[in-house]
Specification:
By secondary structure, the protein is of the alpha/beta class. It folds into 2 domains: 210 residues, Rossmann fold, CATH 3.40.50.720; 33 residues, no CATH class. It contains 8 helices and 7 strands. The longest helix has 29 residues. The structure holds nicotinamide-adenine-dinucleotide. Nicotinamide-adenine-dinucleotide binds next to helix 1, strand 5 and helix 6.
Length: 273
């Protein structure tokens, strides 16, 4: 197999796999391990990270587990130091942790707004704060941030904190990309669309126990390709952006959504005349 990430050390935050199957973070970690990187799978849930480790090893890759909470600076710093100890630097950083909290400004509690920003934006800031000095010293590095189409398109759900915090994540990535380009460090955001993960299915099944098939069919039909994306689509995009094949790609927002962001949805009437 082609191993474009051979001899790289990758640190993936939120790399745990759910017991129902790998999500985006786990798939990214597994794919990078398959491509030759020594992967550090960091997650708040060590059992989930161990599932990713097992899957990565079964796929022929190397993967170590780190228990880390991206909300705590000391935990992020320790995770970075642990990954650095292997080969002296962290070549690849993936900021994958994210949370969707429902509600518009009127319904959403202030604590939930803060939580969304802590998990979706501040987490990446902390990881960057501790990884960038290593990458600067090494004169190389690739950062991939896992964002959402929600960062760039309004949507019609009441998800104000998710949209705002993912947009802030994108802006953070862009700024870092410009600031560090001359030091050999690249930073790109991947904006995922509707992804068909086992966890998403499980959550939908709980929320809509009798209408799951219909809901899944609707989600597939919403995508221009007729099918949702899989975590492996996110993984392939992230692995490419982390590789030297993407050496001149920096400071971009790349949609991994089958073209969903181009879709023009007919406006639904909001008010009775
Ligand atoms: N699933 C989708 O359809 C979809 C669509 C668009 C964007 N995204 C984005 O993809 C990313 C991954 O989403 P996913 O649903 O695939 O999840 P995932 O399966 O990648 O799991 C995320 C992991 O993060 C871990 N985690 C949560 N809080 C943490 C913390 N404080 N510290 C460390 N680890 C923590 C969880 O334990 C879990 O293992 C998110 O940023 C999300 O916004 C997902």
């Amino acid at each position: 197999m082609n191993r474009p990430l051979q001899s790289r050390t990758a640190l993936v935050f939120g790399a745990g796999a759910a017991d129902v199957g790998p999500g985006n973070g786990a798939a990214i970690a597994i794919r990078m391990a398959q491509h030759g990187a020594l992967v550090f799978a960091a997650d708040r849930d060590p059992d989930a990270a161990r599932r990713t480790q097992r899957l990565a090893q079964e796929a022929g890759g190397r993967c170590e587990v780190i228990e880390a909470d991206v909300c705590l600076e000391s935990s992020v710093r320790d995770a970075v130091q642990c990954a650095q100890a292997a080969n002296g630097t962290v070549d690849i950083l993936v900021n994958n942790v994210g949370v969707v909290l429902h509600g518009g400004p009127e319904e959403l509690a202030v604590e939930d707004w803060d939580r969304a920003f802590a998990l979706n934006t501040r987490s990446a800031f902390l990881a960057l704060k501790h990884v960038l000095p290593l990458m600067t010293k090494a004169g190389r590095g690739a950062i991939v941030q896992v964002s959402s189409i929600a960062a760039a398109r309004a949507g019609d759900g009441a998800l104000c904190a998710y949209h705002a915090s993912k947009a802030a994540l994108n802006a953070l990535g862009m700024n870092v990309a410009m600031q560090y380009a001359a030091r050999g460090i690249r930073c790109n955001n991947i904006l995922l669309g509707l992804m068909d993960t086992a966890l998403v299915r499980q959550q939908l099944a709980v929320a809509h126990p009798h209408g799951l098939d219909h809901l899944l069919a609707t989600r597939h039909a919403t995508c221009p390709t007729g099918a949702m994306g899989s975590p492996w689509d996110a993984a392939d995009a992230a692995a490419f952006l982390a590789s030297d094949a993407a050496r001149y790609i920096n400071g971009t927002d790349i949609f991994v959504d089958g073209g969903l962001h181009n879709q023009v949805v007919p406006a639904t009437p909001r008010r009775q005349p």
